[in-house]
Design a protein that fits this description.
globular; 18 helices; single chain; TIM Barrel; 4-stranded parallel β-sheet; alpha/beta
Length: 345
């Protein structure tokens, strides 16, 4: 596949974290505006917020977020951050994106949960107006938080359900806090009719993926460890679960150690639905075009397969059937225009 063609083709992204994707340039702008007294040296800051290629594990990867979060504690900062990620999405040729964030991570300077969510949605709306990229947001409960705090986020998702928040997620240290610990919280989300996508199978445990699906998740963040538990493949097909894979991040967090071990092709061969995402654009120093180019290098991905991955993403998106139909049509038209030579027949 050619980078310039991949850049122009329409894409859908469903797994992108707001905090991990704010550009260094925007963090510096926030710092100047809010007089945070934080580093104003671009390269120094870039080093602090970019995960090393050789993280020890997921926990090691997550340390970059501490620095970023110190910048994202005001309404203005959150609005700027959301707008910035939509600008990046526009450069990536993204037609629709779902951005996720954990509201409880932005309360250090006295914001309320409602102020946090309102500020992010304001930034997303401004992004749609300026860049034409449609977006919605997902709220994450942090696994290490107390149950009451996480359930407050579930309730918040309900309160904002018709205003731009479309689902609930659990994020954080999966190894220490497996999904089965959150049965009651997830039951509450199901009761309130809030769609679920849960981070699972990012640490070495396929059972976490199966547990998440059994508890109501229709999408799984990462899901890589599923490769070691083929007994759950049928469950994925039967429940029509979509795996949100993030290639660069999956290698950084040591979800796998080698390309031979990465289950992208295997999942597709097994008829398990997959979509491709950045996870954290800044922390993983990537974008969506880059992720597809990697798959092109690693697996000789074709434009037809790329189209299929994006159709799967549309099917799994937390939007109405009417909105899905529009996106499917857009994909069909644009990918259909590629001539035989470009598709490489």
């Amino acid at each position: 596949m050619k980078r310039e063609i991949v850049s122009k083709l329409p894409k859908i992204e469903l797994h992108c974290h707001l905090d991990g994707s704010v550009s260094v340039e925007t963090l510096l702008k926030i710092s100047k505006k809010t007089k945070l007294g934080l580093s104003e040296d671009t390269e120094q800051l870039r080093k602090l917020v970019t995960a090393p290629e050789n993280c020890q594990n997921l926990k090691d990867y997550l340390t970059c977020f501490d620095v970023i979060l110190s910048y994202l504690q005001t309404e203005e900062a959150l609005e700027m951050a959301a707008l910035d990620v939509i600008e990046q999405a526009a450069r990536d040729g993204i037609s629709y994106i779902e951005l996720r964030f954990a509201p409880t991570q932005h309360l250090e300077d006295g914001l309320t949960l409602v102020q946090v969510v309102t500020a992010v949605l304001k930034g997303l709306n401004a992004g749609e107006v300026q860049y034409g990229v449609k977006s919605n947001a997902l709220l994450c409960g942090m696994r290490h938080d107390e149950r009451e705090k996480i359930e407050e986020v579930v309730q918040l998702a309900k309160d904002f359900q018709k205003k731009g928040i479309v689902a609930f997620d659990l994020a954080g240290d999966e190894a220490a806090y497996p999904p089965k610990d959150f049965q009651e919280t997830l039951a509450l989300a199901n009761q309130l009719d809030i769609p679920l996508t849960l981070h699972a199978g990012e640490c070495g445990c396929g059972k976490n993926v199966a547990d998440s699906v059994t508890m109501g998740a229709t999408r799984i963040g990462h899901g890589i460890a599923l490769k070691d538990t083929p007994e759950y493949f049928e469950l994925m097909r039967e429940k029509n679960v979509l795996l949100e894979m993030c290639p660069t991040s999956n290698f950084q967090t040591k979800t796998v150690d080698s390309l031979a071990d990465y289950p992208f092709r295997r999942f597709l061969d097994e008829n398990i639905k997959v979509c491709i995402n950045t996870d954290n654009r800044t922390v993983s120093a990537t974008n969506l075009v880059e992720e597809y180019m990697k798959l092109s290098d690693w697996y000789q991905l074709t434009y037809e397969e790329m189209a299929q991955l994006n159709h799967y993403a549309v099917d799994g998106a937390f939007i109405s059937e009417e909105e899905k139909a529009v996106l499917h049509q857009q994909l069909d038209e644009q990918y259909g225009k590629l001539n035989e030579k470009e598709i490489g027949h």
